[in-house]
What we know:
Oligomer: single chain
Strand content: under 5%
Number of domains: 1
InterPro entries: Adenine_glyco (IPR005019), DNA-3mA_glycosylase (IPR052891), DNA_glycosylase (IPR011257)
Protein name: DNA-3-methyladenine glycosylase I
Amino acid sequence: MMEHQRCSWANSSPAMQTYHDQEWGRPTYVDQELFERLCLETYQAGLSWATVLNKRAAFHRDFHDYQIQAVAAMTTQEIDAAMQDAGIIRNRRKLEATVNNAQAWLKVTAKFGSFANYFWAFVGESMPLSREVPTQTPLSIALAKDLKKRGFKFIGPIAAYAFMQSVGAVNDHEKNCAWR
């Protein structure tokens, strides 16, 4: 059986291959999935994606499977308990931002009907192909700025662009990748 050619970054481990082949770059419209991906991108700041991906299951456990209402209601005691879990990235600011961002998410949802409605209207549905993979774009700068205005934390233009890549708002698969 011949394997599909995938982006070179995805060949570092079976987990990375699965993430690439089944999730990365696929348009996502489910708020809970969008929320998880935004959270994962905020955890990645300063770290490798492999580190975040390897800790994904533990994050699911500590953050109520990214059920937005449950995360928004998390207490300081729950964050303290998460800080004891060696299975996650134990950065208090990132963990507190997860709770804060769930609360901000709910406000966006109240205004737009869903975060997906807000996000896809903001970025557009065209999924442009990139010639070169940037770390940020004018659109990711505008998205990060707008999210911050809406109360989100730990999200900058680079994390916003990585989020956009993850959820299929841009197509940054490498030229020889079967998923491009």
